[in-house]
Amino acid sequence: MAAPLLFIFGTSSMNTAAFSDDKAALRSDMLRKRKDLRVSNINALDDLAKQVIKALSGLQDATVSGYVAIGDELDVSASLAALQEIGASIVLPVAGKSGEVLSFRPWCSGDELEKGRLSTYHPSAKTEAPDPDVLLVPLVAFDTQGYRLGFGGGYYDRTLSALREKKNIAAYGIGYDGQEVESIPREVHDAQLDGIITPTRIILSKP
Asked: With 80 as the cut, is the pLDDT of residue 6 above it?
């Protein structure tokens, strides 16, 4: 069941501080919850892979952006391996300086990784990849409208906006079922995802 949360509109000068406090409180609560979910969902990686393959059925030739899980993020390594087996090309994001968009590098199972910004990991080979057709996006919390709460850096919001100006893409948040909340506090620049994929469900975003 989704955790209740009052929806917050806008970020005017009168409510910016309260808005930020609400997001910070939600992030803190859901990070603690995500840690427990990782421990209790022992089959999550394989179950998630099945849902990812189902969600991306028909996109065997797509370029899919994954990620290397950090902390208690839901690991997509089994999902990426399954996608490679059906012919998808995998890329991983590279986080640049604050305020920039993500870039991407090609990756195959076994490729060497190096540590990047914000404790992330990405391919060490500095080869640029084509823009992805599909992005699998880590999250701290999500709602059924397709909005996610991340760590607050805005990398994915900026990147999705930039990619959508160039081509048709699909973006799916990746999380445990227990990371669902009633509504994510959001600002105008927050990018809506096309859906959420959990180990048990594919949730297409409501208009």
From this structure: no
